[in-house]
Design brief:
homodimer; 384 residues; alpha/beta; 6-stranded mixed β-sheet; 5-stranded parallel β-sheet; 15 strands
Amino acid sequence: MRDGAPAVIVLAPDSFKGSLDARGVCAAMAIGVRRAGDDVEIRSCPMADGGEGTLDAVLSRGGEWHTQHEVTGASGRHRAARYGVVSTTDGPATIIEIAEIVGLTDADGIAVPVGERSTAGIGELLRGRLDAGARRFMLGVGGSSTNDGGAGMLAALGVRFCDAAGEALAPTPAGLQRLASVDATELDGRLAECSLTLLSDVTNPLCGEHGATTIFGPQKGVRADDIAGLDAVLERYASLVERAVGVRAARAPGSGAAGGLGFALQVLGAVSCSGAEVVAELIGLDQALRGATWAITGEGESDVQTLSGKAPLVVARRARATGVPTTLLSGAVRSAALPALAREFAGCFALPAGPMTLDACIADVATLLADRAEQLARLWRAAR
Amino acid sequence: MRDGAPAVIVLAPDSFKGSLDARGVCAAMAIGVRRAGDDVEIRSCPMADGGEGTLDAVLSRGGEWHTQHEVTGASGRHRAARYGVVSTTDGPATIIEIAEIVGLTDADGIAVPVGERSTAGIGELLRGRLDAGARRFMLGVGGSSTNDGGAGMLAALGVRFCDAAGEALAPTPAGLQRLASVDATELDGRLAECSLTLLSDVTNPLCGEHGATTIFGPQKGVRADDIAGLDAVLERYASLVERAVGVRAARAPGSGAAGGLGFALQVLGAVSCSGAEVVAELIGLDQALRGATWAITGEGESDVQTLSGKAPLVVARRARATGVPTTLLSGAVRSAALPALAREFAGCFALPAGPMTLDACIADVATLLADRAEQLARLWRAAR
């Protein structure tokens, strides 16, 4: 190290999905960096992109944790849902991570078929917050198990879905198969006063070959044979909803997020934003980067998708804007993506220290992270 | 990069045994380093430690390749053996890599049982060179398939091994079982005029629990049941040889190298040296490091053994003496050895970019090396 003042190192990784949350990644990286030399100031900025871990990341820098009890999960069973309230320059905002309610990793939610899962709980949470006076919402919409086009949420907010006989239908893919009419006259009027921001890294539309069902349905349990039928159900649903509410959104980028919840939110006036960019703003990443000499980011696996606005790219771009080089340390880095990734990062590195299985990487993730961060820091210090 | 003069980067890896020779490793590393920026001067110094690849490494920096035909291989079949002649400050020296004659990777040699393998070819090559007037020899003794205590070599140089009836015995472990007397009166007198240097990274003695048979026998095919018996044969052989020649060597460090060839060479007056140190001298590593800003070394796998004088450690120590940081880039780095390795290197790194099998690493070694070297160089450049 050249001079007296401690060098400032910013640690701003996303979570390593399936193995370690972003705060855990920061902690492990910090241990390693300090092993290479303790004469540094470490600024830990756990990142997220709107998916699982968004609440954790945003609230790690301030704000209040809250819990709403008796919210309907994807399967219909009640559960508790955490949310956050943070202060922004425009006033307090409610942060909702929909994976808290309809998460793909929730065993209870995925115990029922995807055709019976519903986003009703999202609408219930919004209504509860509206009752409490909240009017600004940010919704991280990654990691959902649902594919209901947001019908459950709309129903919980007053929209009625009926069959040809005028009977109310369940707001689920199964129920919507007999959808004949949508009545939005009872839609909660307070939504018109609201600012809704959709945090997502998904730009897919609701339907079609790049739509929610085709692209994300299979990982939620939609069988290949059922994709076309379910896609048609959502297409018909969307056109009826658009007519009833008077807003078009089915072709908007991000309407395919969270099984079409992105569509329903945009019908309600939500603006779709890069989840990682909004999280970066909320956690004050730019301030943390000010005066820093080096940043390390990372995620579970880096590939070409990383370059379409994932958290590590957002960190690298913002760091570059303040003259700070950013190194990527992910669980794995796809070799095919290296040439493109190399242009964005001051080196791209992965966890294994030799031939190793995925299971071994996951089992040992914190140790491997600390070891790799230490070695990167040793090289970085030697080069300075 | 800060200033105008191109930074000088020294690439000084050992071979990645079983996948790529040291020159290939240098070439792959150079490709990667240049991808990170072409404004550098690269000095490639393939290293070796006295084992396979020693001739390649030494002769890559100058000297002449030669071949002696009709040399006896380990199995008794004739073969051609390459050797080198290099000029040193003390005059020309013959470099012999014994793996060229009795190599463990030679399918023909290991086709016969270890009890019948012999180092006779080493003695034949020495005799041929003595006939040509050579008096200075350096023998890289790593990677042998033999366990004959060097009896074959001594026999080729004039020593007679006899049974109780005075009949000549084959100079092999099997033959020596009936050894009763050793006659060194016909030992080639020209050896007394010679300088012999044994290049090795082995400090084991000839016999006992740390001896050649116990430690290295099994990888050559010595069965567990046969270790004690063979060890006793070599112990008796050694005491008779020592008495006949008038030199004690069985307990000297390195006498257990190459199945006891180290013993026989030391009986002939050879000095045992660190193979990596001698190779570093022969290839002019210190000169290459002069004015350099960074060095990269590596080997197939780095573990605690690396710290007992393997090529990467020798590179790092010499580089440090001239103020050059050295980064380790190996096929794999054992996690348990990291704390100790970290003290010697400016970062320790491995080939995989994610979970990966050993076979996949080996199959793709050159690509992975170039990729990793590129990423290391990107971090190094960003930190400067």
